[in-house]
Specification:
- This protein is α+β, with helices and mostly antiparallel strands and about 500 residues long.
- It has a domain of about 150 residues: Gamma-glutamyltranspeptidase, large (L) subunit, C-terminal domain (Serum Albumin, Chain A, Domain 1, Orthogonal Bundle).
- It has 18 helices and 21 strands.
- The protein has a 7-stranded antiparallel β-sheet with strand order 1-20-19-15-14-9-8.
- Helix 2 runs antiparallel to helix 5.
- It is globular, with a radius of gyration of 21 Å.
Length: about 500
């Protein structure tokens, strides 16, 4: 539901009200934005595990009260045994969408700990406890999780662990009381040892289960996992400073789209056929650039910071040939944003990629694994070519923007569509003068890179060949205004409410 709140002490915006509330309670008790983010992330992992569970990945942008922006990459690499030769030896010519060959090492829990270790201020146990309590005592099943359980029943039923812990254990009706005892056991260990998944009993349980169903993730893959930290990408759009996530995130694609739109935005009515067709044309080229320049950070062919430069976009745009375009793919996730009382801001996002990821669940600890290996290609010579221990091209990204005496963190679910959403939100604010809440709640029209069609929500002056969509992602945002007021916004497409500290 569309909603906003304001506070001097801080705000949280997520798509599950319980997560917003618990995170804002951390703020009220003296925690900073990163502390609150950890709590929000873990509560989301318990309550909507199909979108952002502990077997997935996590990325964060953090803007400190002093104005410095940092990046944490909690995405996992390919297992050491996942290679093109391994895939082909099983009679496959591509990585399967679901099943035991589709996961990479889960990076989310390691990424959260790294973010807290660098920037947090509250005792670790205090931040994990709300999620553990919900998993132990129970919570009402959100409608979005109920829908996913119904829609993916067949996929989940093919895996013994998913069948036991999800299909048979949870009645898929909104509001049903749900407990997650296996996940509660994992979180109990995580409270005491933030690396419990990677070096404790869960690592051995994951290896044993994955081998039993034909997977290749080992306890050594988990023990050797390390999140990445570094500098965000930084660009400029019409007086606003824009921060996005560097490779292996597709974040640079947002800049490719913004720079392509720069001379067009503001010329057409905000929900016109002409505006959407320009966005689609620019996005089509931007995805080609993404596929050629973004992937494993160690194999990006240029200095990553260049990807956000307008001069780089101008230089490489002339080299585009349409036959190089990616066919895209689907995906889903959950984005959340926090602003604390001192002005610190977090844009956080986590995902299994597709809802319930691989549909493979280790039953003892209820870890449903991602299917993020789909971000790799078996083609030679690309930054996203599959190699053992490489990180895949990743759809997760988020935005922090500064300008006009305010700081805004925003993002949305949407997989490969996300860079277009970011560009749409930014241009809604900058070129069309919308408020932040209005910008993320306005109807959307986006190119589907898998079909070449324009998808649209009601409210656009649609072309006859466009395809109507009920919902294109769920967005959230926070804003810090001059004078210290913090405002949180949630999307009418979701179920959450923002919460003040």
């Amino acid at each position: 539901m569309e909603a906003w709140v304001s506070s001097l002490r801080g705000v949280t915006a997520t798509e599950v009200s319980l997560a917003s509330f618990e995170a804002s309670r951390v703020l009220a008790e003296g925690g900073n934005a990163v502390d609150a983010m950890v709590t929000a992330s873990l509560v989301l992992a318990v309550t909507i595990p199909h979108l952002g569970g502990v077997g997935g990945d996590f990325f964060m942008l953090y803007r400190s009260p002093e104005g410095r922006v940092y990046f944490v990459n909690g995405s996992g690499p390919a297992p050491a045994r996942l290679s093109r030769e391994e895939v082909r030896s099983r009679g496959l010519d591509s990585i399967p969408e679901r099943g035991p060959l589709s996961p990479v090492v889960p990076g989310m829990l390691g990424g959260l700990y790294e973010a807290w270790r660098r920037f947090g201020s509250v005792e670790w146990r205090r931040l994990v406890e709300p999620a553990w309590r919900l998993a132990t005592r129970g919570f009402p099943l959100p409608a979005t999780t109920a829908r996913a359980l119904k829609t993916l029943r067949d996929c989940l039923s093919r895996d013994p662990g998913s069948r036991e812990t999800l299909v048979r254990a949870i009645h898929p009706e909104p509001g049903t009381p749900v407990k997650m005892p296996g996940l509660a056991a994992l979180l109990a260990g995580y409270m005491e040892d933030p690396l419990y998944l990677y070096r404790g009993e869960p690592a051995e349980a994951l290896e044993e289960y994955m081998f039993s169903v034909g997977g290749v993730i080992t306890s050594e893959d988990l023990r050797s996992y390390r999140p990445l930290t570094g500098e965000p990408l930084v660009g400029e759009y019409k007086g606003y400073r824009i921060y996005e996530m560097p490779p292996n995130s597709q974040g640079a694609t947002t800049f490719f789209i913004l720079y392509g739109l720069e001379e067009h935005e503001g010329k057409y009515p905000p929900f016109s056929k002409e505006r959407a067709e320009v966005l689609a044309s620019v996005a089509r080229e931007a995805y080609i650039l993404r596929d050629n320049y973004i992937g494993d950070p160690a194999r990006v062919p240029v200095e990553p910071s260049r990807l956000a430069e307008r001069s780089f976009y101008t230089e490489v745009k002339s080299k585009i040939t349409l036959r190089e375009a990616s066919d895209g793919g689907s995906g889903d996730t959950t984005f959340f944003a926090v602003a604390d009382g001192e002005g610190g801001v977090v844009a956080g996002i986590q995902s299994l990629f597709y809802p319930f990821g691989s549909c493979v669940t280790e039953p003892r600890f209820q870890v449903t694994l991602n299917n993020r290996a789909l971000g790799f290609t078996l083609k030679e010579g690309l930054p996203s070519t599959l190699r053992p221990r490489a990180r895949p091209l990743h759809t997760l990204s988020a935005v922090i923007m500064e300008g006009n005496d305010r700081v805004i963190a925003l993002g949305a679910s949407g997989g490969h569509l996300r860079p277009q959403m970011h560009a749409l939100f930014i241009t809604n604010i900058v070129d069309y003068g919308m408020g932040v809440g209005e910008a993320i709640n306005a109807p959307r029209a986006l190119l589907d890179p898998s079909t070449g069609s324009i998808l649209y929500e009601e409210g656009w002056d649609a072309g006859p060949e466009w395809k109507r969509a009920q919902r294109l992602g769920v967005a959230n945002a926070v804003e810090v205004l001059q004078g210290g007021v913090k405002v949180g916004y949630t999307d009418r497409r979701g179920e959450g409410l923002p919460s003040p500290a």
